[in-house]
Amino acid sequence: MNNIYGITRKDLAEYFFNIGDKVFRSTQVYDWLYKKRVNSFSLMSNLKKEVIEKLSNDFSIDTIEIKKVEHDKDTYKFLFKLNDNNFVEAVLMQHDYGNSVCVSSEVGCNMGCRFCESGRLKKVRNLESYEMVLQLLLIENYLNIRISSVVVMGIGEPFDNYDNLMNFIRIINDDLGLAIGARHITVSTCGLVPKIYDFANENLQVNLALSLHAPNDEIRDKIMPINKVYSVSKVIAAISDYIRKTNRRVTIEYVMLNNVNDSVNDAISLAKLLRGLNVYVNLIPYNETNTLEFKKSSKEQIELFYTTLIKNGINVTIRREFGSKISAACGQLRSKEANK
Ligand code: SAH
Q: Fewer Cβ neighbours under 10 Å: the N or C end of the chain?
């Protein structure tokens, strides 16, 4: 049965039309779910009894459960228990300009990036749209805050769960849903090339980030198995196409791994690769995990990499470190829970 939190307002309107009811019931239901935040059809008191009964028969309204919260200064990490007893995580970061949340898109991940904790658990299944929506809704309710931006950078490869992802984006972007502006939503991919082409045609103002992490195939092959399928040149071609079609700037993520991809030569190659593209590079200090052998680059090395990119005409920022105390690296919390 479909979960009501995974239905777009448009699909809900169609549902009411098909059962011979008024289309604006969809607006009423959205109001109950996302403004008044009730979690039971029976509380939707402006709906007739028959409508409530019909809804209860046709949709489930089950939620997921916050199983654990870790908190350190401006970062909260949430562990969610899904209805089939799987776990996923989300992280809330409080900035002066608003609250941003990193959500998961899958249980586990099949991409197998060598430095990433999430990939140690192979993909169990896709997250349903409602499970992604509820990560946000429950965080808002728990802390009584409003989320202003969302990044799909938690556990999972969002483009490996494309349809549920797009549905999720439409629900949270809806003014009467969670009303998160498209320009405040970012999808991060390790580079599933065909989906980058699809995404370019969605006609949305959502941001795209590419986890590149290497300036060439030689290095990328070693740390990201997906590169054997879609090489650096293929992924850059797809990004160029995306920029041409959408006129939007793309973020290139680059996690700084000591002695792996952080030399001055690597920075120069990266600058060559990206020259002329409307992108900016986000250098990510690596979050070390207990189970993986990679080390973070030193502050000095990151600075050097940064200035080399600048000198070569590339826009670049260094990401602030969040939550290393609370195992905020993707997958760490889930890993700990699973090891118990
Ligand atoms: N699968 C998507 C989104 C999830 S990963 C993607 O690959 O983009 C989100 C980002 O975190 C990716 O850039 C990933 O490479 C990076 N990442 C994974 N493990 C990390 C760690 N331990 N420290 C820092 N960044 C990490």
A: C
Domain that includes residue 328, residue range: 65-339
Dump pLDDT digits (tens) for 114-152. 999 887 789 999 999 999 999 999 999 999 999 999 999
Q: What ligand 1 atom has the least distance to the C-alpha of 288?
A: 22
CATH of the domain at 210: 3.20.20.70
C-alpha 164 to ligand 1 mean position (Å): 20
**What's the domain count of the chain?**
2
How would you class 247 by CB atoms within 10 Å of its CB: exposed for 0-12, middle for 13-18, buried for 19 or more? exposed
Alpha helices in the chain (DSSP H): 9-18, 25-30, 49-58, 129-143, 162-173, 193-200, 217-223, 232-246, 264-274, 299-311, 332-339
Among all chains, which residue has been given the structure tokens 């599933």?
192
CA of 23 to the centre of ligand 1 (A): 41
| E strand residue ranges, 144-193 | 149-152, 185-189
